[in-house]
């Protein structure tokens, strides 16, 4: 819970400058409201990291490598790369959900070692279900690409709630649409240097893992305005993690981005 610092006020405070005291409390109330709004926005992000892991999936923890995960799950790195459409074996991030069992209709390239004797005829485990792909209403928002580079991870509504655009450190990161900066900082673990832009009562966008932040909270930004520089803060690879949210839910940004 957010607590305000205690401060002793004597009668002379009110007698000498009532207007100043009133302004003082108004400023404190404004700061309290601002932090409450930011806490609500950050709660939307942290909620992604507390959702229940579905059977057949694994949530990446700090310090994990794909090799370690494959070993613990009794599969191979090549399977994990194929099942999760990873561009390379180093492109995983803390909090990312990985499929660790073969999807329906696909066989594992490295099945577990067969035991001696007659194989059991056990019931097959049900295939893990993919998350629901959410999209914004058609035409509700028009975005520009937040950075130049290659999309190395896409949205799937389950393991990835956004997209990753990979390029070199310092690549400009721009606001995908006009709005107000709701957050600019590095207080949320796993997102590095983070910017959140609120576009309307329904839409906000998230820009994570930057090397440098160029905007402040409360600042108005125009579409295409540079707001940060690409980096790898809280990430093993250089790239921008971009997420679009509609009414608090992560949605596939592809339908709102221009083709390229």
From TrEMBL:
Parts of the chain that traverse the membrane: none
Domain LysM: 56-100
Gene Ontology CC annotation, any one: cell outer membrane
Pfam families: LysM, Peptidase_M23
Residue ranges of the region described as Disordered: 102-138
Ranges annotated as biased composition (Polar residues): 106-126
SMART domains (UniProt xref): LysM (SM00257)
Cited CDD domains: LysM, M23_peptidase
GO MF, any single term: metalloendopeptidase activity
Similarity comment text for this entry: Belongs to the E.coli NlpD/Haemophilus LppB family.
Descriptive protein name: LysM domain-containing protein
Taxonomic lineage of the native organism: Bacteria, Pseudomonadati, Pseudomonadota, Betaproteobacteria, Burkholderiales
